[in-house]
Amino acid sequence: MSASVSPLAPKSYPDMPPIRGLRMATAAAGIKYKNRTDVLLMVFDQPAAVAGVFTRSKCPSAPVDFCRANLPHGKARAVVVNSGNANAFTGLKGRAATELTAKSAASAVGCAENEVYLASTGVIGEPLDAGKFAGVLGDMNADAEPDFWLDAAKAIMTTDTYPKVATRLAAIGGVTVTINGIAKGAGMIAPDMATMLSFVATDADIAPDVLQQLLSAGVGPTFNSVTVDSDTSTSDTLMLFATGAAAADGQARVTSVEDPALAEFRAALNALLKDLALQVVRDGEGARKMVEVTVTGAETGAAAKRIALSIANSPLVKTAVAGEDANWGRVVMAVGKAGEMADRDRLAIWFGDVRVAVNGERDPDYSEAAASAVMKEEHIPVRVDLGLGEGRATVWTCDLTKEYVAINGDYRS
Amino acid sequence: MSASVSPLAPKSYPDMPPIRGLRMATAAAGIKYKNRTDVLLMVFDQPAAVAGVFTRSKCPSAPVDFCRANLPHGKARAVVVNSGNANAFTGLKGRAATELTAKSAASAVGCAENEVYLASTGVIGEPLDAGKFAGVLGDMNADAEPDFWLDAAKAIMTTDTYPKVATRLAAIGGVTVTINGIAKGAGMIAPDMATMLSFVATDADIAPDVLQQLLSAGVGPTFNSVTVDSDTSTSDTLMLFATGAAAADGQARVTSVEDPALAEFRAALNALLKDLALQVVRDGEGARKMVEVTVTGAETGAAAKRIALSIANSPLVKTAVAGEDANWGRVVMAVGKAGEMADRDRLAIWFGDVRVAVNGERDPDYSEAAASAVMKEEHIPVRVDLGLGEGRATVWTCDLTKEYVAINGDYRS
Fold first, then answer.
1. Are residues A278 and A397 in the same domain?
2. Binding residues for substrate, per the UniProt record (chains A, B) (predicted)?
3. Are A149 and A22 in contact (CB under 8 A)?
């Protein structure tokens, strides 16, 4: 954990209501950190429906492999998450560690090993001594309680400067359900320190395949639209669990993603995912400003997103934001390098509401003072219109500061 | 120009012999900088064969458009380069500026406008007042002299901390010819300050289409294998001119790229391009270390290069190098995110001669002390073997330091 909290941290945390059917406990196993919790156990007393999306890395961590193998089974009884060690690039030892953890969790909770899910975040390449916490999972299960969300969020932090929680309510067929989520990540994607993990749970009764479709659709404009440093983790994990406890209130189980009763739930889930994703960006390593990049008028939505990510990942754009410099020439550069169709002479660029460029050149009414005023804000909206089609995308990032270099240059040694 | 010279600057400059048939002059036109030259005129008294490669940006500068249009003509009589303003994203005004410059240069030298080549480097989006130097091109032509390479290199600098020159000799059919080149660029690619420009000239007698094939083949493992910050410029320009003066010594004109007489010339040209490209990396903004990333054992050469660039462009790898941290976990991350085939469990990684990882986990003989010693050097070789095939590539980059952030956060405002 970093010494000073991000200036973009939320001013307060929401009250996180319990999710019926889910209990949690944390422990301080001393995996890497001293004097803090570093293990989280989530227990579903009845099998919960489960969905997950994972890193696209070709070198995923052992826990990612483990979760992917269990997911087709569709049921979850326990989740074990540790911080301080990613259990990535740890070879056979890594697989042994996931097996030991799964066996211990299954034994503690009384379930099958394929009902266990695992995630680890921290240093890459160090063997993880799962024995440090495997032995305490039984006690954790005994102690686990439903009202524990903020503690859970704290136990999975690495270089995060604040815990990330979010909650939403939604009605399904007139029955109110709750969705809670936690996340960690400070470079969205920074493999030996800030790997993005997020766990979301609801008491709604939804079949696993529907849950998976909701999650796969929801991740695109949320977690897959934020970037801190363009570095994709070996361990990115986002999981969604549905305990089904709301069935006791008369909620009819949802078995089709087309079910109209899902509309409000889908919207609430997507809002929660976006809330958590933006909290991750706002805790980006060294971040002082959040940048919201919107591309409109692209040939397709995919082209718009690729251009938006090119802007959001450009070190030159991000350092300009850090310097409060309305340097729209670098935005032009980033559009040009994205490789998607662009017509220089149709391009228009805004910082906030200030149009700085139009028709392939500086806006005739350009005001340096007005543009600079936008750059002094904490939240910098950048919009690019390509004037070619209807494709549209928004992504979020943070500025690139000397603190990012310091955090990442000084971390391991 | 930056106040302090890069610690990676060459200790001395080579003597640059004149290229017969080429004269140069510089002027201080006050485009942006005070008290320094900012315009370069190159004059070929007889039409020179010409070849060029340019940025792949979809938003290229006006001079890039201009050069591309003239290149099929195949002959050059004049080159005008200015620093301080990129004439990029300047709309109709930008085209008017290139037309004025070309007309003035053609008139000064006595040639057709399609025998003129142009390049500009500096701020994007500011209209370029070509009138500032168009009027002095006549005087510059009168004053131009052959022995002027170091001055030429200085006139095109922006945030470069040292001028970049290189020279090579080669025999073609027993006749010795000279190749000279200059380059600028400090972020290889940093659009409003460090755009990469390079001009290479030889007295060899080589047909334009052969020259183009040599240049197009030569740029891949040299200028297209260096990266400072992954940001592709609107203005990248590399041109090669052949005056043909060596014909007077009996050099038979080369009209086929398959001509065996080209072997030595090709090797010398490629060595010169690599020399200049590495000088650009070594002057990378804020650079204190050069990183040479070699990927072997990939499925194909293209896959190897993509993985190597993923490593070289990773902010987390680059900050680790800045921090002298042998953080090979970040190299694993960068391999994984490249999207090319990789098998975690066959991966091996070396820093210098120290193997840090093998068979998908930390090397059993890993020595933190030995790896750290490598990281303290100025030149850090990183090698990754994928164990899949014969594909191989090397790219070069520099570290990412707080100075990079300072230079790029403070530049324009």
1. no
2. 158, 184, 195, 285, 408, 413
3. no
- Mutation site for A-interface testing, chosen from B56, B231, B401 by largest number of A Cβ within 10 Å: B231
Query: Are B277 and B296 in the same domain?
Result: no
Q: Tell whether A291 is within 8 A of chain B (Cβ).
A: no
Same domain, A33 and A123: yes
Low-confidence ranges of chain A (pLDDT < 70): 1-3, 186-195, 230, 410-413
Q: Where are the beta strands (DSSP E) in B138-283?
A: 164-172, 175-184, 197-202, 237-242
Residues contributing to the annotated binding site of A for substrate: 158, 184, 195, 285, 408, 413
Residues B267 and B373 in one domain: no
Write out the two tokens for B5: 């010279």
Does A132 lie in the same domain as A188? yes
Query: What is the span of the domain harbouring residue A344?
Result: 290-409
Query: Does residue A135 sit within a domain?
Result: yes
Would you call A195 a catalytic residue per the annotation? yes
* Average per-residue pLDDT for chain A: 91
Model confidence over B262-312: pLDDT tens digits?
Answer: 999 999 999 999 999 999 889 888 889 999 999 999 999 999 999 999 999
B window 11-70, beta carbon within 8 A of A: 55-60
Residues 190-219 on B with a CB inside 8 Å of A are: 190-192
Please indicate if the annotation marks B232 as binding a ligand: no
**Contact present, B187 and A320 (Cβ < 8 Å):** no
Residue contacts between A and B (CB atoms, under 8 Å):
252
- CA A302 to chain B, closest CA, distance in angstroms equals 17
What's the mean pLDDT in B226-234?
Answer: 74
Q: What is residue B342's predicted lDDT score, i.e. its pLDDT? A: 87
The CA distance from B49 to B211, in Å, is 7
User: In this prediction, does ipTM exceed 0.90?
Assistant: no
β-strands A391-398, A379-385 pairing? unpaired
The model's pLDDT over B236-273, given as tens digits with 9 standing for 90+, comes to: 899 999 999 999 999 999 999 999 999 999 999 999 99
- For the record, the structure tokens of B144 come out as 């131009």
3-state secondary structure (DSSP) of residue B61: coil
Given a contact cutoff of 8 angstroms between Cβ atoms, the answer to whether A196 and A280 are in contact is yes
Per-residue model confidence (pLDDT) at position A1? 39
Buried b (16+ CB within 10 A) or exposed e, B293-330: bbbbbbbbbebbbbbbbbbbbbbbbbbbbbbbbbbbbb
pLDDT at B413 exceeding the cut of 60 = no
Pick the last residue of a domain from B282, B300, B321. B282
What average pLDDT does chain B have?
A: 91
B85 shares contact with chain A (CB less than 8 Å)? no
What is the rounded distance in angstroms from the CA atom of residue B393 to the CA atom of residue B391?
A: 7
Q: What is the CATH number of the domain that holds B336?
A: 3.10.20.340
Same domain, B305 and B276: no
The number of distinct structural domains making up chain B is: 2
Last residue of a domain, one of B257, B282, B307: B282
